[in-house]
TrEMBL record, chain A:
Belongs to the thiolase-like superfamily. Beta-ketoacyl-ACP synthases family. Residues 5-420 form the Ketosynthase family 3 (KS3) domain. This is 3-oxoacyl-[acyl-carrier-protein] synthase 2. It holds the Pfam family ketoacyl-synt. InterPro entries: 3-oxoacyl-ACP_synth-2, Beta-ketoacyl_synthase, Ketoacyl_synth_C, Ketoacyl_synth_N, PKS_Beta-ketoAc_synthase_dom, Thiolase-like. SMART domains: PKS_KS. It catalyses: a fatty acyl-[ACP] + malonyl-[ACP] + H(+) = a 3-oxoacyl-[ACP] + holo-[ACP] + CO2; (9Z)-hexadecenoyl-[ACP] + malonyl-[ACP] + H(+) = 3-oxo-(11Z)-octadecenoyl-[ACP] + holo-[ACP] + CO2. It comes from the Bacteria. Pathway: Lipid metabolism; fatty acid biosynthesis. Keywords: Acyltransferase, Fatty acid biosynthesis, Fatty acid metabolism, Lipid biosynthesis, Lipid metabolism, Transferase. Its EC number is 2.3.1.179. It is an enzyme of class 2 (transferase).
UniProtKB/TrEMBL annotation, chain B:
Pathway: Lipid metabolism; fatty acid biosynthesis. It is found in: Cytoplasm. This is Acyl carrier protein. It comes from Streptomyces hiroshimensis. Carrier of the growing fatty acid chain in fatty acid biosynthesis. Residues 3-81 form the Carrier domain.
Length: 421, 82
């Protein structure tokens, strides 16, 4: 197959985030510069070092029927809600095989999470200790396995080309989208439901991240806690939710007359091999991933006008990312409107690559870069054009491209490139 | 005091409603858990555990496979309750 007819496009988007229960309300809140970070209520959080999180705006238990919800970990619930929105948004009205729009054996899913069903695991251990063996749910294993969100979405749409779950901590969602692009490019599938999800707001993961000194402890001002690029940034704020896109070969999308948001040009991947959790301070690995992206696609640095940065609000990580971008893009970084949307959503770990791809798609489609909030005092190490406080219009004419970065504990670097159509 | 068959049916209907979302009035003695009531083998374990609690009865794993219908379960509970 020629590369032209394996061009990959985005035909549907879906999200449920700390800012809204779908992609439209999320986008609206992002443009308004609203923070999704809230205090964590309840006794079980009372003595923790961190008592804030960007919890979901809409509880998935209020959306899904109870018999279904009780068999799914919260991470799979989020994924299913986002996938249903994306599937419908792409114009699909039935599961694969029920009509002629897509054959099951040409449909795949790649949905990732960083930690998997951690709350199910911990809650069921509490059940075992407090209520005994008999009361541990028989659904525990299919709920906690990290491939559960991908598998459940696969069951929902009848995907038979392959159901996959790459795991690379906070790069997982982006890696899932990259994997999905490759599935279509290689001819294994025509349509792939791809994205990331996470649900880890529980005392144990929060305490564990806090003890790594990775999280903001600004419990007094939750909405100010996530502040990428600001001098006073002191770590990330945990978020939860999911973002899912429908990726499709351009040929398949054209054949069924689908609305196309943008093209996904490809991915650049690398590994730091520096430290299990600390970012490599010069950004060497990130630069390598970006260079690999430029080498493997026809993306020209001159057409990149927007970046959805990884920027989690940690002192080291935010600076290393910008350094790497400057190293590879040089002066071309000057015309890139940089948005750190985690300032509003918090950090969704494996879900981040999913929701931030949805946001990058919308930025290109609406030609608007969302703002970064809480940059009250820009760190002088940040040598880039940060979109602050209010959205910024992107060039109204001609093709424009954007980059979406995700990096994860373990030294994983994933750089995705998208271009308007 | 031991529950009557009618009380057991009502209790099972509540359990199946909670677990599988089937309306209480659709849970009848002749209904098959798997074929009619959307209770798969995993959810059946939940139904059994809930029934054990509700009716103070032990249903060993090896007996669960014989409980195909709501009637089978009701009869089992009626016979084995304390």
């Amino acid at each position: 197959m020629s590369s032209t007819n394996r061009t990959v496009v985005v035909t549907g988007i879906g999200a449920t985030t700390p800012l809204g229960g779908d992609s439209a309300t999320t986008w609206e809140a992002l443009l308004a510069g609203r923070s999704g970070v809230k205090p964590l209520e309840g006794e079980r959080f009372a003595d923790l070092p961190v008592r804030i999180a960007a919890s979901a705006a809409v509880d998935p238990g209020d959306v899904l029927p109870r018999p279904l919800a009780r068999k799914l970990d919260r991470s799979a619930q989020f994924a299913l809600i986002a996938a249903r929105e994306a599937w419908a948004d792409a114009g699909y009205t039935a599961m694969a095989g029920e009509d002629s729009s897509i054959a099951p054996e040409r449909l795949g899913t790649v949905i990732a999470s960083g930690i998997g069903g951690v709350t199910t695991l911990l809650d069921q251990y509490d059940v075992l200790k407090e209520k005994g063996v008999r009361r541990v749910s028989p659904h525990t294993v299919p709920m906690l396995m990290p491939n559960s969100p991908s598998a459940n979405v696969g069951l929902e749409v009848n995907a038979q080309a392959g159901v996959h779950t790459p795991v690379s901590a906070c790069a997982s969602g982006a890696e899932a989208i990259g994997y999905a692009v490759e599935m279509i490019r290689s001819g294994r599938a025509d349509v792939v439901v791809a994205g990331g999800t996470e649900a880890a707001i529980h005392p144990l993961p929060i305490t564990a991240f806090a003890n790594m000194m990775a999280m903001s402890k600004n419990n007094e001002e939750p909405e100010k806690a996530s502040r990428p690029y600001d001098k006073a940034r002191d770590g990330f704020v945990l978020g939860e939710g999911a973002g899912v896109v429908i990726l499709e070969s351009a040929e398949h999308a054209a054949r069924r007359g689908a609305r196309v948001y943008c093209e996904v040009l490809g991915q650049g991947l690398s590994a730091d091999s520096h430290h299990i959790a600390q970012p490599e301070p010069t950004g060497r690995g990130i630069a390598a991933a970006l260079q690999s992206l430029l080498d493997s696609t026809d993306l020209k640095p001159s057409e990149v006008v927007h970046l959805n940065a990884h920027a989690t609000s940690t002192p080291q990580g935010d600076a290393a990312e910008i350094k790497a971008l400057r190293k590879v893009l040089g002066d071309d970084l000057d015309h890139v409107a940089v948005s750190a949307t985690k300032s509003m959503t918090g950090h969704l770990l494996g879900g981040a690559g999913g929701i931030e791809t949805v946001m990058t798609v919308l930025a290109l489609h609406t030609r608007t870069a969302p703002p970064t909030i809480n940059v009250d005092d820009l760190d002088e190490d940040i040598d880039a054009d940060i979109v602050r406080d209010v959205p910024r219009a992107l060039p109204a004419e001609g093709p424009i491209a954007a980059i979406n970065n995700s990096f994860g504990f373990g030294g994983h670097n994933v750089v995705l490139a998208l271009r308007s159509v | 005091m031991a529950a009557t068959q009618e009380e057991i049916l009502k209790g099972l209907a509540d359990i199946v409603n909670e677990i599988a979302g089937i309306p209480v009035e659709d849970v009848k003695l002749d209904k098959s858990f798997t074929d009619d009531l959307d209770v798969d083998s995993l959810s059946m374990v939940e139904v059994v555990v809930a029934a054990e609690e509700a009716f103070d009865v032990k249903i060993p794993d090896e007996d669960v496979k014989n409980l195909k219908t709501v009637g089978d379960a009701a009869e089992y509970i009626l016979k084995h309750q304390d």
